[in-house]
Structure formats: structure tokens, C-alpha cells
Amino acid sequence: MSGRIQKAEGRRQNGRKGGRKSLAFILAPVFCILASSFWLLFFSNDLVAEPIWREATPGYQFAFPRDHAAHTDYRIEWWYYTGNLATADGRRFGYQLTFFRTGITPEPSNPSRWTVRDLYMAHFALSDLTNQKFYAFEKLNRAGVGWAGAETNQYRVWNEGWEARLEGDQHILSAAEGNMQLALTLAPEKVPIIHGEHGVSQKGAAVGNASHYYSLTRLRTTGTLTINGEELPVSGSSWMDHEFGTSFLEPEQVGWDWFSLQLNDGRELMLFQIRRADGSIDPHSSGTLIEPDGRTIRLSQTDFTLTPTQPWRSPASGASYPMTWKIAAPAHGLHFLVRAAFPGQELQTTASTGVIYWEGSIIASSNDAAQGIIGRGYLEMTGYIGKRMGAVFDAVTP
Amino acid sequence: MLPLCSLFHQFILRALLREKLRTALTILGISLGVGVVVAIRLANSNALGSFRAATEAVAGETTLEITGTAGRFDELRLRELSWLRDYGRLSPVVTGYAMTEPTSATEKKGEFLQILGVDILRDRLLRQYDLLQLREGDREPNAREFLLLLADSQAVVVTEKFARRQGLTLGSTFTLIISDRKSEFVIRGLLRDEGPARALDGNFVLMDLAAAQWAFQRLGSLDRVDLKLAPGVAVEVAEAEITKRLPQGLVIVRPAARYSQMEKMIAAFHFNLNALASIALLVGLFLIYNTVSISVLTRREEIGMLRAVGTGRGVVLALFMGEACLLASMGAGLGLGLGQLMAKAAVQATSTTVETFYLAVVNPGATQPLQGVEGAMAVGLTLLLALGAATRPAFEAAQVAPLEAIRGPERLLKSRQWSWRAPVAACGLLILGGLLSRLAPVNGLPVYGYSAALALVLGGVLCTPIILWTMCRQGDRRLIRLPRLLPVERLLARASLGAAIPRVAISVGALAVSLAMMVSVSIMIGSFRETVVYWIEQTLRADIYARPLTRVTSIAEGDIDPAALALVAADPAVVAIDALSVQRVNFQGNTISLAGGDYAVLFDHGRLLFKAPQDAYDQLRRGIGRDVVSVSESFALRFGKGPGDVVELPTPLGLRPFEVIAVFYDYSSNHGVAVMDRTTYFRYFPAARPSSLSIYLQPGANPEEVRSRLASAVGSRYLVVFNTNRGLREEALRIFDSTFAITYALELIAIAVAGLGVMATLMTLILERRREFALLSMLGMTRGQMRRMLMIEAVYIGAAGQCIGLIIGVLLSLVLIYVINVQSFGWTIQFHVPMAFLAQSTLLILVAAAVAGLYPAARAMSANAAQGAREE
Predict the structure, then answer these.
(1) Nearest chain B CA: its distance from A33 CA (Å)
(2) In order of start, what are the domains of chain A with their CATH numbers?
(3) Which residues of B are less than 8 Å from A115 in CB distance?
(4) pLDDT digit string (tens) for B321-377?
(5) CB contact, 8 Å: B119 with chain A?
(6) β-pair partners for A220
(7) Which residue in A has a C-alpha nearest to residue B169's C-alpha?
(8) What ipTM was predicted for this assembly?
(9) Structure pTM?
């Protein structure tokens, strides 16, 4: 999931240079603080030898189920579940359940349980496709006494009552907020797909601006959704992304569009493009085409085109998102249209981080109208308004 | 018939203006009375109000709080509480006080700040933090950014007010003292004067939860978890449900409970202050009664004339009631202003007591101005009381028959007649007082005790005429064998005073009341002081005492680092240390102290004074290791527990039964203390640190030397204050004396008011006796003799007042010591009469009375002699 890339600036030292004006603006107070407490460097041991986060570098050897669990020596990590589900009588739903971990201080000096080593954020959204209703919730917590966390020796990540964990090879998801609930069991139908080359998915020009990134692209899903108190048995197909690294995006990279598609012919497609401040597409955009047997074909930026049309203006945020994309990868015989199942699937996390993005269920259909729907998936569009998605992961460690 | 107001103007106003001095004295007297009441009220509401405001400001939108049965609790217990999320938003809190560095060497303490340690991510929905942005155009940071501001353990956000006061700004580092340590902090943000920042006049520090735990050295424990209920959840329902589900050792309270608990504790103290202040007002009301009475008595002729020309009784009544109203409203108006002026002094005078016994930190800010409604109520109440006081003389005026206008010389006959009713009523009141003093308190307030005091006072007042009569008729011959000095002047003084008894009785009564209060209060305080001195001598046995710097009073926070304790123990001169740990807990809605001390050290070196049982030491020795406690006398009285009873004390494991095995005397606090041996204490409070140390030295060691040695050995690393035994005794008595300073001040004001009354009465008497003076001087009396005669009259008045004052005062002191004090504070005070002080004050009263007679005498000499002679 290249998507949720952040624009964590290339953060190796404290002195990052914000390319964008707003970035500089936001960081300026941080600089003031850093400057004013600079003398601490001479007195405080933990700052003299500041531990640094591990970078995502080529050669990483994935192993499962070990790599489902948390990698706390990397600064940024997330587990992303999206899926399209339906009831027996044909009511369709999309869901998103995401757990983020952002490292704040790798080796905190204060032994309190409440010390913020990592921040845990989670987003939970349900799309009622039939009624075109969208419900989204968020959580932001420190680990504290275990109110949120991600285990390292086995796969379990949670935020208050929301949780994803492994039972055998099945992923168990649960989340509830008021009378909206989700309880799903996900069984992988394919092996984990590792994106990028040599175990890294490069996101920026600098070495280390990359992530280790794999997906479970087809998970047979059963369980129940509770929509406004109504309990509905559902089944369908989910997609899981797990990505970890330390610095991803560069300042000129302002946003991204990320697609996950499960095609009816047994193939899956992951594509992401990073948009640059000047309007161009970043050369590190890429994708992966997964064959029914699990073989993968890597798509580089030049192998595909994404053409947005039909802008929709969100009444809530004022952002304008394209609702239809024309996707073409001629070398692999891919030509089709992707459209949002319905427009209003925008998340606003104003209470915690201020990030606004669109993440919703999409429908793929052939350019040839006769063939009809050829697949379903999820689309994430960030950087269209408000704070950059990357702001969620900015680290401030004086 | 003249319209009423014009009549009022002619008949009352003019007279008042003519008698400028008397009018002024009356108004001044009332205004002092009202002023004292207002000042005390303001001081009381300031202490409580600032606590309430701070509680409310810090509570924010918290609807319920979960805390440990014994206060702080293990944070891991939160894991049992994930179900609480269904009720709303949770925010764990670590809180406490820190002190700024004393700015000069002479200053003993700095300013106290309340530190609130929260997880800002969660807390922002409960409390409003209006972060002041220093950069133009910057927006309010979101929760995540706010958190990152506080992410390291030195980061704090302070209020703009505090920063300005201390000359700090964003990025400044500054030092705070927490318990026995100094810590450096960096200001990462400034708060506007909103929400919790308003607490304690801006002395508020926001920290991250982790940083606060670290700063207070309280890793792993929380003070409470605040809960903001989700919309639509009823508080009562949630409270009941949560109470049912909470595991042992945790309780749920409403934020306001802390305030009402404090209110309950301090109520007795405030009630007593109010009662004392009311004495001045009471005396002021006597003044009104006195003034109106005199005005009626001296003007019966004129009243008769008014009646003769057709003025109705109602009008006469209205006239004199109007006079009372006028005097009272002017006095009350003046009193309001005076009260505001005196409020600051009252706050200062009471703050030592409040900080020593009730509130660790009193808002340092200015006192609140009087509310309009409260002011209006004070004036209204004074008017009402004044009208009540004037009723009797005004009715008497209304009874004057038109014929009396002509019967001028006989005008005094009626009131000179003796009534058997007064002595009977006096006896009745005294008996009533005795009975009332036996009744139990109402809601912990000695309401009947004060009623008994009032009955005694009124009984005393009713005795005044008898005493005066006895003094004038018999006294000189039989009772007092004075050398035969100034026989003529004395004879005349006695005769004229005896004739004026009905008129002077009231003002002498007022004087007697205030003197009685003075006597009783000084007996009470004297007894108390003797008791405390004895107690200190018996129980302060250690050679050196140590406390953390921030523990400026017994209820302030602070503990001593175990490493500092080890340093003390390492000193070769130290033979034993009794480290006392104290935890303030909520017990049956009251705050009490649970303390853990070393019984073994106490037995070998120290000493406690036990009230019960006889063999307390043996009992305690046998109780070591078991769940037993010894409780302070105030605990025993307040909760009605004695040796053998079982109390369910709050511990981190929930309520646990403890057997009370002894009751000891303790005058260091009145909120109740339960002490257990350290072996028991540490079973329940394993992480407890000592709050104070009692250090015993080798025989022959020089305490002063050891003290300075310890101070330099420990002081370089820990902020621990060492006091020698002598130093602590002096300190204890200093606090004692400053606690009671306000009592004396209030009494002095009451006496001053009464003195004004006596002076006003004398002036009236003299004006009335113009003819008599003229006659006397014609008969060859010199001016000097006449002056001495008048001074002797004044001394008689003073003596009568003091005589009644002494008798009633001793009775009152019994009520104060054995009823009011016990019911309010739960202390046993050994009765002790400070003879020297009483003799001294009696002499002073007599001299003061003589001096007070000087001015009226001088006036009598000058203006009226000639005029009087002409009339004759």
C-alpha cells in the first residue's frame, strides 16, 4: 500500500527543511523549541547519543507470520484492512479498519508507562453502498496501561476496543463505536505479496525514503456488521496491507492516489501514484499485478497511467476529488474504468490530527460496457486539502 | 398636623444633628459591627470560594471521577476498567502541588502551583486549554501537536499570568520544588486565562501524564480518572451502575464532592469566626437600643407635647423607629465599605489557620469584592435587627401620655421603679444557658453551644441594673474597702449614677457583653495554650525533626526520599528515627490522615499522651503487626469511636476493618488521624515515603551541631528542612498564637464598640445634669472635684461592666471549652484561668474608663455650667 505514504520529510536529523511554505510554517515553532532547549544537548545523555530509527533498506527478508507483528525499531508502521462485503440478500458494504503506529521517542528516558514512545492511531469506516451512507470513526492513543499497542512477538494490534489479530492463519478483526460494529474473520487465499524490489518499496529519491511493504490481496471474509444497531451477517473479500519504515515521502510529494483492486478473473492490482507539488507524477509511483497463482508483475511508473475525471466537491471539507479514474497498463492488457461506489466517503480526523482524506469502496468496470463490472476494490486519495496525511507521522523529538 | 417626614426632620433629624458626637459614635459603632461581620464573611468566602473556583475550573466537563478508596491507586487497575469507556470519555490524572523557589533567604516558602498531569489526547475533550499562540496567524494546535509540545519530561505549559508574574516566557527554563527536590522545566506553551488556568490565580501548570508521574516520583500510580459522560447518559444512572461494577479499592465520586467535603471540614471554623464577629454587631445593636432609649427618656416632655397637640401614637412610634432605621442604615452603609477594607486583613489573619488545618493552598489573589445582593442583604438584616432593638424604647415613647408634658420633673419616676421581672428573667436565662450547653451539635456545628452562650450573655445583661445598684448603694461600704480617697466625689458619683441606672444599664450591659466575650475567649485561649504547651513538652521528645521543603504545614504535600533518610541514619549521633508516613484519605465523607509510624521507636524514645485506655502502651505493643490503629482525640469524637471499636478504614485494597486500641491527644490537626505501626502501614501502602522524621540523638550530642551537620550532608542533594526540638516548639507556638490573633482582634473591636456606647451614655447623662452641675458649683464644688466625680462615675461603669464580664466570661469560657470547642474541633482543653492577664485587663479597663470619662467631663465643665446656672 504505497498509499498511505507520508510525507515525512527525510528526517534524519532534527533540522528538516520544509519545502512547502505551510510546512515551514508548521515546523517553525518546533524549531523555536528546539533552539531554546538546545543546551539540553550538553547535559542530557539520552539526547547526546540520540538513538535513531531503522531505515527501510534493500535486502530485507520477509518471514511470516513473524512480519505480521509490529516492527518497533522502525518509526512508522500501519496495518490496513479494506474490503467489500454483502449480505445474503444483496445489501453491499465497504469497510476500512486501519491501525497506525508512529514512533515518537525510540528510547525514552522517563520510565513511566505513559511515556509516549509510540502514538497509536486507528481509523474505522463503514460504507453502506446500498443506502450511500458513510460512517467514520477515529482513535488516537498512547500505549499507557495497554489502551493501545502492537505486539512484537505475535500479531495483535489494537486501539482501545478495536483490534486485529491472528488466529492460526486467519485475521480476526473487531471494532465497535456506539451501535456501529464490525466483527470479521479473514482467511487468506493467496500468499503474502511483497511489493517493490529487494524487499523495499521505494517512495522517494533518497535512500531510506522507502518502506517494507506486503499485502494479503485476497482474504475470504465472513462475519457480521452492525449498522445502526442492526446486526447483518456478511461475506465478501478483503485486502490487507502492512507497511513499515522510517521516512517515506519527501517535501515535494504532496499527496497520493492508491488503488487496490480484486478483479473477477482472479487477478489483483495494486497501484499508487505520488503527486508532486508542481503537478507532475513522481517517478517512484509504482504498482503490482498479482496473477491468480500468486506470481507478481512489478509495474513501474512508466508502465501505467491513471486519468482522473468527474470531480466531486466534498460539502464538508470543500476538497475536490475525482470520482472516476481511467486506468491503463497497455503492456499487460489492462484498460478499465474505476468509479467510486458513491462520492461521500471522506474521512475528517479533525479532533486528533486534522488530516482529511477520501477512502472508499470502488467498482472497476470494463471500458466495454457489455462486460459490466470486472472487479471491486478500495481507493485512497490524500493531499487534496487540509493537512498532509504525512503530518500524522511527523515526529517531534526534541 | 405636620406631615410625617417634616416632623421627622424637625423632631429627629435636628436632634441627631444637635447631638453630633453621640450620633457619630452610634453610627461608628454599628458600622464597626457590620464591618467586622462583612470582613469575616468575605474572608471565609474567599478561602472557600477560591477552593471551589479552583475545583470547578480544574474539573472542567468532568462529570464523575474514579479514584482509589485511599486516594491514589495503581494505574494497572485501569485494565479492569475497559468497560468504563462505554460511559464516555476517560482521562487519567496525576496531580499535586509544586513550589516556586523562595526568592530570598528569609522567605520560608515560595508560591504554590497546582500541577495537572494528563494525557492531552484524551483530556482535551474534558477541559478547555486555550493555548496562547505567540505567532500571528497560527491556529490552535490539534491534539497530536499539543501532545508533542509536552512529549518530554521537562516540558510544561504554564499560564500567561504566572509567566508574566515570574518574568518568564516561551522557552524559559525555571525551577520548581516538588517535595524535597528541585527540578528544571521548560515552558513550551502559555495558557490563556480560561478553564483550569484560572485555578489559584493562574498558579497552574499543565504537564504530560508521564512527566508528572516522573516529577512527583509516582511512577505507576494515578490520582484519579476523570470521566466525561457520553451525551444522553444520566449522571445518577451512570454513577449507580458504575458504583455497582467497580472492583474493590476503587470508588466513584462527583468532582463537587471534594468541594463539599472541604466545606464540611471548614464549616466549624467559619461558624466560630462568624459567631465571634457577630458579637461586635450585637454590641452595635445595643448601641441603637441605647441611643433610642436615651432619646426617648430625655425627651418625654417633648413627646408629651407632641401628643398633646394631637400626634397619634403610631406617628410617635414611627418617629423613633425611623431614628433607629436612619442610624442603622448609615452605620450599615459605612460598615459595608469598612468591611471591604478590613477583608484583606481578615484574610491574612485567617490564612495561617486555614493553611495549617484545612486547605494546603489558599488563593494568593485579591479578595473577591462583596456581591451586590450580599451587601443589600447585610444592610437589610442590620435594619431589621435595629428595628427589633428599637422596638421597646419606641413603644415606650408611644405610651407617653399627653399630660406628661406638664409633669416634667417626674419624668424619671416610671423607669426608676424596680421590676422583679429582670432578675427572674436573668436567672431563667442563665439556667437555660446551662441546659442548652448539654445538647449535641447540629450537623457538626455547635449551634446550641452558641445559643447557650447567647442566653448567658443576655442573662448577664439583665443582671446589670442589680450589680450597678449594689455598687452604688452598698458597694462602697461593704464590698470594697478602698482607702478613703476623694470621699465627696465618690459619694456624689455613686448618688448620681444610682439615680441614672435605668439609663446607663443598657450601655453598661453592652460593655459587659463584650468584656465577657473577651474574658471567656482569653480564658479559652489561655487554657488551650497551656494545654498545647504541656502536650508539646510531653510529646515532642525527638531532638531533631525533618520535613521536605514543600511540607510547610501538616496538611501540605511532600515526602522525603529514602536516600535522604539513609543519609540521616548514617550520622553517628543518630540513634533512632521515627519516619512518619501520612496519607490523606476520604473517610465517611471527611478527610482524615492515615499515618504509619514506628511504634518501637516511639516506645523506646518518644512519647504520646493517651486519653484512653490506661494501658495504651501495652495494648499498642501487643498490636504491632495486627490491623489495629490508635486514633486522635478529634477522630474519636468526630466518629464516635473509642478503644475496642472497629473502624472500616480506606486502604488501597478497599475498606478494611481496624480495631481502635487507643485514643491519643493531638493538637496538630483537627481533621482526625489514625496511626498504625509501620509494619501494618506498609502492608497497605507499600510505596509510602516518610512525610516527616523524628530523629533521636545519642545522649550528650549537641542537637544544634547535629542539625547543621545533617543539613549540610542532606541539604546538598535534598531539600529537607531540619529543626531542633526547640526550634519546632517555638514554631508550633508561633503558629498557635497567629491562629488566635484574629480572635483577639475581633474581641478588641467589640470592646471598642462598647466603649463608644459608654461614652455616648455619659455624654447624655452630663447634658441632662446641667442644672445639677450648676448647683454643685454654686455650693462650692471645684471644677477639679467635678471632673474627678465624673471620672469616678466612668470608673464605676467600667468596674460594673468588668465585674459582670468576669462572671459571665468564666461561664462562657466553660461553654467555649467544653461545648463549642469540643463540638467544633474535638480537642480536650484543660481549664486554666490566666489570672495575670485578667488582672491586667481589669486594670486596663478601669483606666480606660477613667480616660473615657475625661472628655464628657471636660465638656460638662465648659459649655454647660453657665447655661445650667442661668436656668436654675
Answers:
(1) 6
(2) 21-393 (2.40.370.10)
(3) 153, 210
(4) 998 999 999 999 999 988 888 888 888 778 777 777 777 666 655 556 777 777 888
(5) yes
(6) A187, A237
(7) A36
(8) 0.82
(9) 0.81
